[in-house]
Specification:
Order of helices and strands: HEEHE
Number of domains: 1
CATH superfamily: Fe-S cluster assembly (FSCA)
Oligomer: single chain
Largest sheet: 3 strands, mixed
Strand content: 25-35%
Helix content: 40-55%
CATH topology: GMP Synthetase, Chain A, domain 3
Structural class: alpha+beta
């Protein structure tokens, strides 16, 4: 499952990089994915919306069983 999550994150990474940001897989804790936003994304006020509407949506569509994506610092 971890490999599937990482692959799903890699699919959204180019979109984040276009805006000067990046994302890093941190951990898979049960059904919760932990990620770290980097670059321009780390301080962006829209970052949580991006995580929920883009990252979480993509991961949940590709990896059955994932319940949510949380960001860590």
């Amino acid at each position: 499952m971890k490999e599937q999550v990482i692959k799903a994150i890699e699919e959204v990474r180019p979109m984040l990089k276009r805006d000067g940001g990046d994302i890093e897989f941190v951990a898979l804790e049960g059904k919760v994915v932990k990620v770290r936003l980097k670059g321009a994304c780390s301080g962006c006020p829209m970052s949580q919306m991006t995580v929920k509407s883009v990252v979480e949506k993509n991961i949940m569509a590709k990896v059955p069983g994932i319940e949510r994506v949380d960001t860590v610092k």
